[in-house]
Specification:
The chain is mainly α. Helix content is 68%, strand content 1%. The protein contains 15 helices and 2 strands. It has helices spanning 2-20, 23-33, 43-47, 56-70, 84-95, 99-104, 107-174, 184-190, 193-220, 222-225, 229-232, 244-258, 275-278, 287-306, 325-335, and strands at residues 238-239, 309-310. The protein has a two-stranded antiparallel ribbon. Helix 1 (2-20) packs across helix 7 and helix 7 packs antiparallel against helix 9. It starts with a helix and ends with a helix.
C-alpha cells in the first residue's frame, strides 16, 4: 500500500516537473545525454565524475561544464521544484544510470530525473570550483615558497662569502696610504676583480630575494593563473554585510578584462595585499595590476574559506531521503491536490 502510494506520488511529481520544462530546456537535456561528434563520452557521463586535482586544465574543464549547465536555462525552474531532500534523492537516483538507461524512461520521468540531476550538479560544480581555486592558490603559494627558500639558502651562503670579500676590499681602501694614488689597476693587483664583481652581484641578488624574491616568484606564475581566473570571477559570488569591497574588487577586474578600464584606479584598495607583493605594486610598468590581482586572489581564497564571500547556489548538505519521507509525502500531496 505504501509503495503504491509513493509510486503514485512520484508519477504525479514527474508529470508536474515535466510540464515546467520548456522545449528549449528539453532539447538541452537531450544534448547532454548525446555524445557530441568527436567526443567519446556524453556530458552527462562527464558531469558524474569526481573532481581531479586542481590544475589549470581541470579548472577550465569544470568552468566549461558549469557554463554548459547554466546555458540550459534550468535556473528559472529551480524555485518551482520539490523539497531539497527529495531532489537530492532523485539526483542520486539519476547518477546510478547511464545515458542509454535514462533515454529508455518515460519522458516525464526521464526529464524530471535529469532536471533534478542538473540542478544538484550545478550546485556541486560551484562547490568544486571554489575548492579547486582554493587548492590551486595554496599549491601556487607552496611551490613558490619552496623555490624561494631553496634560492634563499643558496645565496645566503654566497652572501656570507660576498660580505667577507667586500669587507676585505673596504679595509684595503681604508688602509691605503694617503701618499699613494689608488687606481683600479693598483686595486686589482691586490683584489681578485672577478671575485669582487661576483660578490657585488651576489649581494644584489640576495637583497632582492630578501625584499621581493617571493613576490617575484608569485608574479612569474601570473600568466598561468590568468588562464582560468577571469572566467572564475564570473561565477555568481555574493558577500556578507561588511565584505562588499570584495565584490567591488571582482567587478573592477571584470572591467579591466573587458577593456572598460585601462589601469587600476589610483585610489584602489591595497590593504589585503600580502607584504610579499606590496613592493611589487610599485614596480615596473605592467606589474602593478599583476601584483594587485594575485593579492586579491589570495584574499578571495581566505574570504571564501571564512564565508565572507560565498556562492549562494553551491550545494548544501541534506539528510537522507527516507529520513524525511513522511514530510515530503505530505508536502507533495498538498502541492498536487489540484489534479
Amino acid at each position: 500500500m505504501v509503495i503504491s502510494v509513493c509510486s503514485e506520488v512520484h508519477e504525479r511529481l514527474f508529470e508536474f516537473l515535466y510540464q515546467q520544462l520548456s522545449a528549449g530546456v528539453r532539447q538541452a537535456i537531450d544534448e547532454l545525454l548525446a555524445v557530441a561528434p568527436g567526443d567519446q563520452r556524453s556530458l552527462f557521463y562527464l558531469l558524474k565524475e569526481y573532481p581531479p586535482s586542481a590544475t589549470i586544465s581541470s579548472i577550465q574543464s569544470y568552468l566549461k561544464r558549469y557554463r554548459s549547465l547554466d546555458d540550459t536555462g534550468i535556473d528559472a525552474i529551480e524555485s518551482q521544484t520539490v523539497e531539497p531532500a527529495f531532489m537530492d534523492y532523485l539526483y542520486k537516483l539519476a547518477r546510478r544510470y547511464n545515458a542509454s538507461d535514462i533515454k529508455r524512461f518515460k519522458e516525464s520521468k526521464r526529464y524530471s530525473l535529469m532536471l533534478c540531476f542538473l540542478l544538484e550538479t550545478q550546485k556541486l560544480l560551484l562547490d568544486h570550483l571554489v575548492k579547486m581555486h582554493d587548492q590551486y592558490i595554496l599549491d601556487m603559494l607552496r611551490k613558490s615558497k619552496r623555490v624561494h627558500e631553496k634560492k634563499h639558502r643558496e645565496f645566503r651562503k654566497r652572501q656570507k662569502k660576498a660580505i667577507d670579500m667586500m669587507l676585505d676590499t673596504t679595509h684595503l681602501i681604508i688602509d691605503w696610504p694617503d701618499d699613494q694614488h689608488l687606481s683600479k689597476v693598483a686595486l686589482w693587483q691586490r683584489i681578485d676583480e672577478k671575485k669582487l664583481l661576483e660578490s657585488v652581484d651576489d649581494l644584489h641578488i640576495f637583497k632582492r630575494l630578501e625584499e621581493r624574491g617571493y613576490g617575484d616568484l608569485l608574479l612569474a606564475r601570473y600568466p598561468s593563473f590568468r588562464k582560468y581566473f577571469p572566467e572564475f570571477l564570473h561565477l555568481p559570488f555574493q558577500a556578507k554585510p561588511g565584505s562588499e569591497p570584495l565584490l567591488k574588487s571582482i567587478q573592477l577586474i571584470r572591467q579591466l578584462d573587458a577593456g572598460e578600464l585601462k589601469k587600476l584606479p589610483d585610489d584602489v584598495s591595497t590593504h589585503f595585499i600580502p607584504k610579499e607583493l606590496q613592493r611589487c605594486l610599485k614596480g615596473e610598468d605592467g606589474k602593478q595590476r599583476n601584483a594587485w590581482e594575485l593579492g586579491f586572489a589570495m584574499a578571495m581564497r581566505e574570504a571564501l574559506r571564512s564565508g565572507d564571500l560565498f556562492v549562494p547556489k553551491s550545494k548544501p548538505r541534506y539528510y537522507g531521503y527516507y529520513e524525511k519521507a513522511i514530510g515530503i509525502y505530505t508536502h507533495v500531496s498538498d502541492q498536487y491536490s489540484v489534479y
